[in-house]
Sequence to fold (227 residues):
Amino acid sequence: DTAVSQTPKYLVTQMGNDKSIKCEQNLGHDTMYWYKQDSKKFLKIMFSYNNKELIINETVPNRFSPKSPDKAHLNLHINSLELGDSAVYFCASSQQTGSETQYFGPGTRLLVL
Amino acid sequence: AQSVTQLGSHVSVSEGALVLLRCNYSSSVPPYLFWYVQYPNQGLQLLLKYTSAATLVKGINGFEAEFKKSETSFHLTKPSAHMSDAAEYFCAVSESGGYQKVTFGTGTKLQVIP
Fold:
């Protein structure tokens, strides 16, 4: 059973389009995250939700909008895609923040042309 | 503010040799420290973590790390490298209290030479 799953795995799209990435975890965790990993492997947190409430919101363009319909799901919608949005986006979950282990999904590779 | 520095973006070792990946942290309060590994085209997975218990932490796949407060370090070691250890390794830090984010280092790519 996949603990943290993401769809789609690959996403190729044109500049200006709107796209969504979905994430689901079956670990019963309360906290979920979105990370962006750039071409140099630098990993930066974007958002975190705890029990459907936004708790961490880093400096991210407001073209990025997360949504958590329930604590097992955290989706990421991106409007007006730009070339610089090309990256790998990882979803993760943990029981709580701080000392808790984060469990990562396999990533969504986004390429904006 | 918390931060973590990984010295060496690339490390090469021979198969069977000692693996040493360096990590130094900065934190205003006692930190939680983590090492994660990322294999090609996969997500990150936890190798080990320090949460203020024993300062020598043993993880999966024969890795261990020692928390040294005086040196603000949390270096990752493995006595004998295996080809399957080739991957990207990330050190990370978090702080206690409230909703704390985890800050990741820039990663160290480990190459194992046969």
